[in-house]
Write a structure and sequence with these properties.
CATH superfamily of the largest domain: P-loop containing nucleotide triphosphate hydrolases
Strand order of the largest sheet: 11-10-16-7-8-15-12-13
Shape: globular
Number of helices: 14
CATH class of the largest domain: Alpha Beta
Low-confidence stretches: 48-55
CATH topology of the largest domain: Rossmann fold
Radius of gyration: 29 Å
Length: 604
């Protein structure tokens, strides 16, 4: 296909602004999907995506659109809107020349929209501003259109209006994509070389098939690739033979070859995890140039341990994590053992939503019942003996007397909210150690706060609190920008004087007393009683901060005796008293797994 008649574009927007619905209308209008096969959210293929109304996995699609007798190819990449997947969004933006900035007419510009818009501008994309959901009775179409025009510094007449639900304005939008988005430009990093360009392509996503192995989704930058070509992953350094090449319609459709400017897939046949990764370059084995710029290894920022509720399920969990890793290289896992929970895996995730999605997929796709420990982040700890260690598990955090300094990740955050909620938000921000660096008026009747706060505070129900305080009107975007000194300490939970590693937490010094009392109160409520009395305690700074006594169950061994002298009962009671004393000194407390589950879940 002549690159002059190809248009590559993506849709960027905040969560729930109608990206997938608009894509549905485009597929319908171009005849890419037959009407009888049409369903809502065609490009959201996972059940979890449909259920929650969010895009988790990027899905490209190729549409044929005829204007004035000329056939054009429109390649759309529908991208995730959540901040956890911002790197995947950045790679998909590198695979296209234009982007539709979609803004909900009922909500206006949201915080995440700003973040993704900046990424699109940095990538040099042509931005087409579009206001969606104009059919809604709550739509503020003209007001939001002016807001969008002001945001990207364009004329109000350039802002298009569409309804993904009714299809109004979608055909005009497709025509504007042809007019405004430039065709793919020839990619030639060595202009002095007039020889035919060798095949080079950018990997913006991939998936795994049991039969054919890893299938990479690519944007071809130069040259062409066909079935049986010898190719290689430039970053991973792995060579392979292309089993098949094709395009998305949106189902996979094999083609003879993929040429410059096209978006499609390559079946690699590789069945090992860790080879394919987003941002890598797939090129001909003859290519001698370095990989395409911009690649970076996925960096987990949130850590949690996963244990099967039954240790019999450990092999299934091991296999399930391996399978998920084949199609998602952004999470990591390694085996670990806990004296109380048995064997499990310490896993690293891109963020809290990523953690939630992976654990939910494990439960649904592999029927696993899991215990998920309290999420934690990575701390850089300098010890008094000069050693520096990276700690990603609270149980491994050094004792107070060994620590010289601690540093932790800091996020730069933007919150857009109606001004009437600022008072409540400020109180919540103070409690989460946030430092507001700027306050700006944003559009009509909205304020944007820019702030810095520790990443660990995001995991302390921050999103839920902000949504609750703002009645759901506030929107948040954040980026991990730096490491700063942290005033934190490890808090241990002791049961019968024995520390329980699974309950350990790294908490802020100023909140350690409050956290200790809350943890002990909750543990006291869910812990079953034993035959002997024991204590549950929270410990930090080398001292006990909170303590509760769980009294032993009463059981009178002499109660079953009938008749005889009273001394018989007295002897048995003395014996029972001695037994209770021995149990208290040497007995071990059995902590059932449901106690761990309840302690890990907030709000129970």
């Amino acid at each position: 296909m002549n690159p002059l008649y190809i248009r590559n574009f993506s849709i960027i927007a905040h969560i729930d602004h109608g990206k997938s619905t608009l894509a549905d209308r485009m597929l319908e209008l171009t005849g890419t999907v037959e009407k009888r096969k049409m369903q809502d959210q065609v490009l959201d293929s996972m059940e979890l995506e449909r259920e929650r109304g969010i895009t988790i996995k990027m899905q490209p699609v190729r549409m044929n659109f005829k204007v004035g007798g000329q056939q054009y190819i429109l390649n759309l990449i529908d991208t995730p809107g959540h901040i956890d997947f911002s790197y995947e969004v950045s790679r998909s933006l590198k695979a296209v020349e234009g982007s539709i900035l979609l803004v909900d007419a009922t909500q206006g510009v949201q915080a995440q929209t700003l973040t993704t818009l900046n990424m699109a501008r940095e990538a040099g994309l042509k931005i087409i501003p579009v206001v969606s959901k104009i059919d809604s009775p709550l739509a503020r179409t003209d007001e939001v259109a002016h807001e969008v025009a002001q945001l990207i510094d364009c004329d109000r007449s350039e802002v298009l209006e569409v309804s993904g639900k009714t299809g109004e304005g979608v055909e005009h939008l497709l025509e504007e994509i042809l007019n405004r988005v430039p065709p793919p430009q020839p990619y030639n990093p060595t202009p002095q070389n007039h020889a035919p360009a060798v095949f080079r392509s950018l990997v913006f996503d991939f998936q795994y098939s049991n039969h054919t192995g890893v299938i990479v989704y690519v944007r071809v930058m130069s040259g062409s690739a066909s079935k049986r070509d010898k190719l290689m992953f430039k970053v991973a350094g792995r060579e392979f033979e292309a089993i098949d090449v094709g395009v998305f319609t949106p189902e996979e459709m094999p083609v003879v070859s993929l040429g410059a400017g096209e978006i499609g897939y390559i079946v690699t046949g590789i069945k090992e995890p860790g080879i394919a990764s987003v941002g890598d370059t797939v090129a001909s084995v003859k290519d001698r140039l370095p990989p395409l710029p911009g690649y970076r290894s996925p960096r987990p920022v949130v850590w949690a341990s996963l244990y099967p509720e039954s240790q019999d399920d450990l092999p299934i969990l091991r296999q399930a994590l391996g399978r998920l890793r084949l199609s998602d290289s952004s999470f990591t896992y390694e085996e670990e053992a806990s004296g109380t929970l048995g064997k499990g895996y310490r896993c690293g995730f891109l963020g809290m939503l990523h953690l939630e999605i992976v654990t939910e997929r494990l439960r649904r796709e592999f029927n696993l019942e899991l215990i998920v420990t309290q999420p934690s982040i990575t701390y850089n700890v300098e010890l008094k003996d000069g050693r520096i260690s990276t700690v990603y598990s609270p149980a491994l955090f050094p004792d107070e007397h060994q620590v010289k300094t601690v540093s932790e990740p800091i996020v730069t955050m933007k919150i857009i909210t109606p001004p009437q909620y600022i008072g409540g938000l400020m109180k919540s921000l103070y409690e989460h150690e946030a430092e507001v660096t700027a306050t700006d008026t944003f559009g009509d009747n909205r304020t944007m706060l820019t702030l810095k706060m520790p990443l660990r505070e995001l995991m302390r129900n921050f999103f839920d609190e902000v949504k609750s305080v703002s009645s759901g009107y506030a929107s948040i975007s954040y980026d991990i920008t730096e490491n700063k000194p942290a005033d934190v300490v490890r808090m241990d939970i002791l049961v019968a004087d024995e520390p329980v590693a699974a309950f350990a937490r790294v908490v802020s010094r100023r909140r350690v007393q409050e956290e200790a009392e809350a943890m002990i109160k909750k543990l006291y409520e869910v812990m079953p009683r034993e035959l002997f009395t024991f204590k549950v305690q929270a410990k930090a700074f080398g001292r006990i901060l909170s303590s509760e006594t769980i009294k032993g169950r009463k059981k009178d061994a002499a109660g079953t005796l009938s008749g005889g002298d009273i001394t018989r009962k007295m002897k048995l009671r003395e014996k029972q008293k001695e037994g209770r004393k021995r149990l208290q000194e040497h007995g071990a407390v059995n902590i059932p797994q449901e106690v761990f589950v309840k302690m890990m879940r907030s709000g129970e």
